[in-house]
Write a structure and sequence with these properties.
Distance between the termini: 18 Å
Number of helices: 10
Number of strands: 11
Structural class: alpha/beta
CATH topology of the largest domain: Rossmann fold
CATH class of the largest domain: Alpha Beta
Order of helices and strands: HEHEEEHEHEHEHHHHEEEEH
């Protein structure tokens, strides 16, 4: 296990991220990087990836795996894609550090609608597990790491807890994970945070409406296309769409079964969780306690940072602390594994 995890295994520690004076507001941290962070140069190729049920998702490859030190599998957030600022620039940064990156777009994301009525949600780990096994078959000798943002972070942590004996992913990083979905659904429905909810719901409902024009949803959900405008909150969406479409009794059943926090004590993969107390998408109740962690999980908490923000630098030249932090963590995983290999020789 990497030295930094050995020192603080199973603990919640203070992050070394410190917000600059001009970016101590949670909304500045959350919104500013999207519009003012310089977009890194990035070239990539796309690939359609078939799933066992006949559906497809879109993969984005950054760099050549066989020429890289390791492959980082990246999972985006709600309604995200390679175009999301946190995915785009983190992928570019990691490539410059010698990593190849593959971004898995969840069903219906990345600009391409999926073929089936079902979509994606915070606890859908089956698709990611299918991809990981495919990557292991294609690149059996290449070290594999993973990073998830927001919804993708919750999904990744749940997957690692469901499969504690997995050996495909050697290290994982989760950023701004909504570890208790019920708390998050309530928090984002208050104050200024409702603007984030409204923005994301608009995209979710638009995609649903488009799919309903070509897929028959009768018998799958209890809402018609004409009733879509009545959905005003994430809880409404999860109650009427997510739950029935994916086999949950209701929104509360979905939240309970798919929140990652109860899975953290089962994880046996070196894992780093990054979280800010001022995350506007959730409240501090989602923060795990040390006794809820396995010895392989480290949680770093900062006072500020917003949601997938963690911005430093100057207003005219902002820098994202997450990028070098992710590279440093992944490099420590590789260095630790190489040390173990050498000791066995």
């Amino acid at each position: 296990m990497p030295t930094e995890l050995l020192q603080h295994k199973g603990k919640v520690v203070v992050s070394d991220f410190i917000a600059p004076w001009w970016a101590r507001n949670r909304h500045v941290q959350t919104i500013f990087p999207r519009f003012f962070q310089k977009r890194a140069a990035l070239s990539y190729r796309r690939e359609d990836f078939s799933l066992p049920d006949g559906d497809k998702v879109n993969l984005v490859w950054v760099g050549e795996p066989l020429a890289a030190n390791a492959l980082v599998v990246m999972f985006h957030g709600l309604e995200g894609s390679i175009d999301s600022h946190y995915c785009h620039n983190t992928a570019a940064y990691l490539q410059r550090q010698g990593f190849a990156v593959v971004v898995m777009h969840f069903r219906g994301c990345g600009g391409k609608p999926n073929l089936l009525a079902r979509a994606y949600h915070s606890g859908e780990t089956g698709d990611a597990w299918t991809l990981l096994n495919y990557l292991q078959q294609q690149y059996p000798d290449l070290p594999k790491l993973a990073i998830g943002f927001s919804l993708g972070a919750n999904m990744l942590l749940k997957l690692l807890g469901e499969r504690p004996e997995q050996r495909i992913i050697q290290g994982a990083m989760a950023v701004s994970a909504p570890l208790l979905l019920n708390e998050c659904a309530d928090s984002i429905n208050h104050g200024f945070a409702r603007r984030y909810q409204k923005y994301l719901l608009k995209s979710m409902l638009k995609n649903l409406s488009l799919k309903m024009q070509s897929i028959d949803y009768r018998g799958l959900i209890n809402i018609t296309e004409e009733q879509i405008p009545s959905i005003k909150t994430f809880r409404d969406f999860d109650q009427n769409i997510t739950a029935p479409l994916h086999g949950f009794k209701d929104a509360n059943d979905y939240y309970q079964r798919c929140s990652a926090l109860p899975f953290l004590h089962k994880i046996k993969t070196p894992t780093l969780i990054i979280h800010a107390k001022d995350d506007p998408f959730m409240n501090e109740n989602v923060l795990p306690k040390a006794e809820q962690l396995s010895a392989f999980v480290r949680v770093e908490v900062s006072e500020q940072g917003g949601h997938c923000g963690f911005m430093q630098g100057t207003p005219w030249s902002p820098e994202i602390w997450l990028q070098p932090r992710s590279a440093r963590f992944f490099q420590s995983i590789l260095a630790s594994n190489n040390t173990v290999k050498n000791e066995k020789l």
